[in-house]
Amino acid sequence: MKTCIITGAGSGIGRATAIDLSFKDTFDTIVIIGRNLNNLDETYVRMNKKKDIRKIVFDLSNLRGIPDLVSEIYHYNDRIDCLLNIAGTVDPQPLLNTTLENMEETYTVNVFAPFMLIRECVKYMKNNDGGAKILNVASTAGMTPRPGWLSYSSSKAALISMSLTLSEELAEYKIKIYCVSPGRCATALRRKLAPEEDPSTIMQPEEVSNVICQLVSDEEQCLDGQNIIIRRK
Amino acid sequence: MNKPIPKQYLLLAGKPVIIHILERIDDIAEISEVIIVCHERYRDLLSTYISAYMLRKKIVFANAGTTRQESVYNGLQKVNTKLVILHEAARPFVKKSDFETLIHDENENITYGIDIPFTVLKTNNHYISGNLKRDELINIQLPQKFNASSLLQGHQMAIADKLVFTEDASLLFHYGLGAVKVVKGQPYNIKLTEPMDLLLGEIIYKEFFAGRD
Fold first, then answer.
1. B2 phi-psi bin (left φ>0, alpha ψ -120 to 50, beta other)
2. By C-alpha distance, which of B29, B50, B165, B184 is closest to B111?
3. Among the listed residues B180, B172, B191, B178, the one whose alpha carbon sits nearest the alpha carbon of residue B102
4. Among A124, A127, A171, whose Cβ lies nearest the Cβ of B210?
5. Is A172–B211 a contact, with Cβ atoms under 8 angstroms apart?
6. pLDDT confidence of residue A14
7. Is A168 in contact with B53 (Cβ distance < 8 A)?
8. Which residues are A160's β-sheet partners?
9. DSSP code, position A229
10. Number of domains comprising chain A
């Protein structure tokens, strides 16, 4: 029973990916994680019910709860094959308005939670016969200067760096690390960054999930270990 | 290596050197337990690593001695199986299959060895004192497998005779406690000795281990 964990599954790219993946053959069990049960329910309703779908309400800012969360997921099927770190948060502020709390909250969800999830999953994944895949959703904001988005853009830069480092560190376990950096995408998070933008004119979450599903499929073996930019030209 | 901590605890490709070995041993069913000979002050560090890397094999600690031979002897006293495999924590470039080759060989005493590609001569007081035939020499490489009671007996005899050996195939041979078979080792299975070896090690790791069994 191949198992995939998706964080941030209650909205945006996480939701689109959960729905999309449920109609693919890649995984048997899909664990969707989000903070809000109503949002997870809405995702669940749109997923393919022929799959074994598990909903888990969990706030990723509870970093110390992550080892037990991952352990519980692992022992359900005695394996974890894929982790998709999609959850993210943003509170755009200029430097002189950026509080330590803002920085800490952003890094907690965007950097520390992926780190904890990866660390705990790798404890199990490293014993998989066929390896495993981990995909982190960063952002083009982590690659170029974005005045006013200090905490968000620097946290995504950290996630890109973490992905590249772990790609080498975990290669012996046949764990492939993917990193995608979507450009402007019509999500709730994007609305905070660009409230005046018409979401119908930019990339949709389904376009990003389409790429993610291709990357985590069994056929894809060559695009790991690099930051893959996803955006409309 | 002029490092503040022993080389087996240094990071190689982002992972403690000794963990490279312990992970490869971890799912070899024929190995019932691992005896780690180390100084007492490193046991907590090792236990932390073993826990963090979720290693499942039973681990037993033995005290390090003042010499390599004494350390091996201390470890041998904890062995409760017929056969024992010896390895060095500073040789991380060993594959699971290297251990399995020893385990499945019918000979009880067996070691890896590689040809010597250079000339070795005897010296005395800075002058050549004797020639050695290169084709009769072998560079001994760990891991090795031995009959545990024979090797323990050899060590007890060496203690009584106050003889010191730098490895265990020579000790067993000296006391005639069993024939030792030699199988061809791998040139990349180097022992981390000099600081440069860690640099070479990163290359060896990427070429022969990353993304491989």
1. left
2. B184
3. B180
4. A171
5. yes
6. 98
7. no
8. none
9. E
10. 1
* Total number of residues shown for chain B: 213
Q: Is the CB of residue A181 less than 8 Å from the CB of residue A229?
A: yes
**Cross-chain CB nearest to A169 (options B14, B53, B209):** B14
Q: What string of DSSP letters covers A50-113?
A: TSEEEEEE--TT-GGGHHHHHHHHHHHHT---EEEE-------B-GGG--HHHHHHHHIIIIIH
Percent of chain B with pLDDT over 70: 97
B26: nearest CA partner in chain A: A127
CB contact under 8 A, B211 and A171: yes
Q: What residue has token string 């290693």?
A: B55
How crowded is residue A65: how many other Cβ atoms within 10 Å of its Cβ?
A: 13
CATH number of B7-208: 3.90.550.10
List the beta bridge partners of residue A31.
A5, A54
Q: How many CB atoms lie within 10 A of CB A79?
A: 19
Confidence of residue B213 (pLDDT cuts 50, 70, 90): very low
A69 contacts A56 by C-beta, under 8 angstroms? yes
Buried/exposed B78-89: b ≥16 CB within 10 Å, e otherwise: ebeeebbbbbbb
Instruction: Count residue pairs from A and B with Cβ separation < 8 A.
Output: 23
Residues of A in contact with B94 (CB under 8 A): none
* CATH at A9: 3.40.50.720
Kindly report the number of other CB atoms within 10 A of residue B38's CB atom: 20
Q: What is the mean pLDDT of residues A66-94?
A: 96
Task: Kindly state the average pLDDT of the residues A25-39.
Answer: 97
* Strand ranges (E), chain B: 11-12, 15-16, 33-38, 58-63, 83-86, 110-114, 121-124, 127-131, 139-147, 181-184
Structural domain including A58 reads 3-230
- CB-based contact A208:A181 (threshold 8 Å): no
Residue A165: closest C-alpha in chain B: B14
